[in-house]
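Here is an idea for our session: we take a single protein and study its fold together. Once you have written the record down, we can walk along the chain together.
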Amino acid sequence: MPIRINEIFCSILGESTYAGMPCTIIRLTGCNLRCTYCDTDYAYDNGIEMSVEQIVRSTRKYEVAPVLITGGEPLLQEDVFDLINRLMDLGHIVLVETSGSVDISKVPGDVVTVMDLKCPGSGEHEKMIFGNLDFISEQDNVKFVMMDYDDYRWAVDVIDEYELDMICSVLMSPVMGVLDPRELSKWMLEDRLMARLHIQLHKIIWGSDVQGR
């Protein structure tokens, strides 16, 4: 079955513990959430259908090892798992960015899962499946995108309840233009939080409104 693709491009990866590295980014079309601060709403509907082999050919021309599969919500398309396995067979480091609102149990263990757990400010936090955290391991990332102090406190409560800082890398990301990174830094320092301040590097490099970067 074809996979609906919004865009494929090579750039400096802006998020995750691989941030700063050249990476091929495969953005799938479609999302089941409508976050208040969404910066990829152009991926809700727009895209073309491609076979797994067509996608692979498009990625191989960039000749970089890391490949990020993102969206939208990439796990909504069942055939994404065929793509993941094909890329891994070719020796790629595969990262999958998912919201945590879709079951991740079928994601292969060697994949770097970047789970974006939605805080209350997103308007979508009640749709998170916390059972997904049972499938998170050391190489994975759990990311919290925050609009304000209430979001921060919610994230800290989740980190404490599930002992996430003992399981994986925890990323604390301010919504650009809404929450000052200095404020978030202050809160993290006050709490001695074992997490990473995580700013969207691609937006600093290319600007906040540029697609394909």
Q: What stands out?
A: The radius of gyration is 16 Å. The first strand starts at residue 3 and ends at 12.
